[in-house]
Amino acid sequence: MSLVTRNVLIALGITILIVGTIALSIDYLGKQRIEELAAIESQIAIDTLSLETQFLLLVSAPCESATSTSLASELANLGDRLAYAEQELGSDNREVIELKKRYTLLEIRDYLAAKQLAATCGQKDVTVLYFYSNAGDCDNCDRAGYALSYLRDTYPDLRVYSFDYHLALGALETLIAVTKVKNGLPSFVVNGKTSYGFESLEELMTRFPKGTLSTSTPL
Amino acid sequence: MSAELLIYPALFVAIFFESFVLVTFLSAPARRRRAGAPAGGNALPTVAVIVPCYNEETTLARTATSVLALDYPADKLSLILVNDGSTDGTREVMEQFRNHPHVAIIHKENGGKYTALNAGIRATDAEIVGCLDADSFVEPSALRHIIPCFEAGVAAVTAAMSVHEPKNILELMQYAEYLFGIAQRHTLASINGLYVTPGPSSFYRRAIVMAVGGFRTGHQVEDMEMALRLQRHGYTIENAPRARVYTTAPATLRRLFLQRIRWISGFLRNVLFDYRDLVFSPAKGALGMLVLPIGLFSLSASVIVFGTIVFATSADIAQAIALREGIPLAYAYLPASFAFDWFYFPTTFFMLLVLVTIAAWVSLAVLGKQISRTPGGLARGLISFLLFYGLLAPLWIARASVDIVLHKTRSWR
């Protein structure tokens, strides 16, 4: 075997080794991301259960003891990471879909808990249910999602829950049925009032109860 | 077709070729060449260094002085200055050397660089002729490193070229590029894979150059055409990595583009039209089966990859801007936090492949600097290269390709 042939084979082997190592590293990092998401979800599941338990314990106690504000920010953090993982690993990734379903359940439970908290204690948080789609049937969903992220980060009293309209999950289908949201995405349910479409941030802000955003303290 | 289908094969080939060069660099033939000692004593062949000049009044004196200062027996070294119809003060500068006993001066009508080289070759009977551009300077020890490389069957020896005193970003970029070229040329020479004997400084056996017909215009790259012709005739082209020669790199974008368009279009015209028989020729070994095919592939791939990346990046930027429309600028375009979060670190397949390619390239540039012992700092050159070369090279490659399609030939300057 000539020197050139030998070196070509060695170089080919090195190249395959490098490409293989990179592929394995990417796979490993993807799994690490999934594991981190799962860990955050587990923590939020415990927090949600704790909040619900607090409710049961504090039915007759002062409302100041029960708060879920920190839970909302944890949920938002998890939502951001999940969106990034979905973008990196693909929306058809089995583990991403599983995590998304669990995340959706956590959101619904937090929404219900926050709603009960508001009813019991008279809190006036503004709640937004945001329905979007990644299936290519929603042109303005990305812009709407980004605008809502801005509002959520700017006004801490605003509670935003994002739902993938097409996610096959019984609880979500029930929520859609209860809120009577149709497939005209993006759609928003602001304090129980449903609206569709997205034009601009300014226009979106007009759908909120008057004074809600302006009286909040921007971060 | 998705962008990945175009980009990944190109990156795979790039990593493969860099691995091949690194493996060959570590192989015995290359190691043996690096261990070679410079020629000693006086039992040396006669050498004539030809300096073709066209309007080189500003650099010629230094070039000539550096040749005359070569560490070589004076009675075996001569300098031939060929004025190729210059219209500036080149003639006057040349005449300053008229009385030097080892300098010959030829004035002729302008006919192009190859005619000046042939005029110089005809004017000497030295065993070895060196071709040195009038904007290049040789180290005193260079010839002592070159001569031992002329073993049996060797028709030409190339030197270790680097950029003389790089100052601006473009020169620094080329400084790093030339160091990479030193390592690559040294490695490919060990398997007779060189396809160019660079104009700024290469040495030839005069008898062989005469036997193959002397220099030709060679689509404005007479050095590349001569190397390919020597390879076709079965000769060997060697490299002396410690024979340092400094050349003046183009300092402006316009001059750099002109030079590179000439190089690339010359390479393509020679390889695709005049020397097509060498490509994929098993008889030509590494040159035919590896160097020339990968050279052609990398030129087309770089344009395609660049176009794909520019298109994809432009689309991403447009999408990101559209996404942020109407959102306060402070939120939309400033990071919320500067804290590092590995979760969001973009570890994509493409990015890691590019990092490996860059790492291998940097390694070769460092090796080039080490084996040639070229002076100067490498860091600024590497930064300039990594920042700008990838943006500029595809443009001159594309432009050269268009010139070939349109049968357009550009002036040298």
UniProtKB/TrEMBL annotation, chain A:
It comes from the Bacteria. This is Thioredoxin domain-containing protein. It comes from Candidatus Kaiserbacteria bacterium RIFCSPHIGHO2_12_FULL_56_13.
TrEMBL record, chain B:
Keywords: Glycosyltransferase, Membrane, Transferase, Transmembrane, Transmembrane helix. It holds the Pfam family Glyco_tranf_2_3. It comes from the Bacteria. The keyword Ribonucleoprotein does not apply. Gene3D superfamilies: Spore Coat Polysaccharide Biosynthesis Protein SpsA, Chain A (3.90.550.10). GO terms for molecular function: glycosyltransferase activity. The chain crosses the membrane at residues 6-26, 286-312, 343-366, 378-397. PANTHER family: POLY-BETA-1,6-N-ACETYL-D-GLUCOSAMINE SYNTHASE. Belongs to the glycosyltransferase 2 family. This is Glycosyltransferase 2-like domain-containing protein.
